[in-house]
């Protein structure tokens, strides 16, 4: 009927209300997940272990560089040493360069040290994989799948992700540090259009690594592209936080002398890693919120399995308690077990339906004990 037709303006308003309601639910779910899972505290733990892995990693690299530079001529090694000192002079004071950087480079470009390589890389792999373990474990809990993957599998996955992150960093970090000028020096002028693709390629590589981190952290098989929103938000949050931290450090350094002295540089690195850890966990919370609003079959089925295991564990606990009561008080315990069996039979269908609805939305409630029938 003509009177029932919806005007285009009314359709636009209704569509906007649906979008606003969906965005609000995403924000509420993300914030709630962050508060329930102590994102700030876990980010501090991950940042600490990430910072702890840097010194042994640098020592391991320093011990291995000597083997690599044996194949270079003395003039080439001297050019690399000079370039490294010039680069350090841009960020550090001259006394620091003379007292720390220059002697360190002399040791680095000397003979290879196998003992430093072995100890350094072992410590770096342990502490670095421990930081990744925080991310993997927290992401699993955010999806309501805590305990679905064993401790050993989680550690192996964290170790593999750390090694993959090191390989990715070997490719991306030099690109970020060198900037587009590296492309200008390496490619001919007729391929200058590649310079325009420099930063898009770096951003795509970072997003792909973060998406893969989120994808493999979920203990069930999910779609890789469903983790792109959280990875994109993580990268934006990280870039914005890095610029904000740099601005704050520039302002404070220009106004007064640092009271931390030689600890200022490690504190700055710690803050930067803390921002990165928060960004990763917030991105994981966003992906978990998307999964609650539009759950995948695999995650819903896995959450139902977790609920089933929790209920079975609670029933076994009640059975052991009832057995102990029966041994102590035979008559009273038998009557209690009969009443509980009657109540569980009456509430089974409604309870199963409620658990299915909650699991479909990503909520895994604790197994509640059935209420006793009055009398």
TrEMBL record:
Keyword flag Cytoplasm: no
GO cellular component terms, semicolon-separated: plasma membrane
Localization of this protein: Cell membrane
Membrane topology: Multi-pass membrane protein
Pfam families: Virul_fac_BrkB
Region ranges (Disordered): 346-375
Nucleotidyltransferase listed as a keyword: no
Annotated keywords: Cell membrane, Membrane, Transmembrane, Transmembrane helix
Transmembrane region(s): 46-69, 116-136, 156-177, 197-216, 228-249, 269-290
Superkingdom of this protein's organism: Bacteria
Chief localization: membrane
Matching InterPro entries: Virul_fac_BrkB
PANTHER family noted in UniProt: INNER MEMBRANE PROTEIN YHJD, UPF0761 MEMBRANE PROTEIN YIHY
Name assigned to this protein: YihY/virulence factor BrkB family protein
Source organism per UniProt: Nocardioides mesophilus
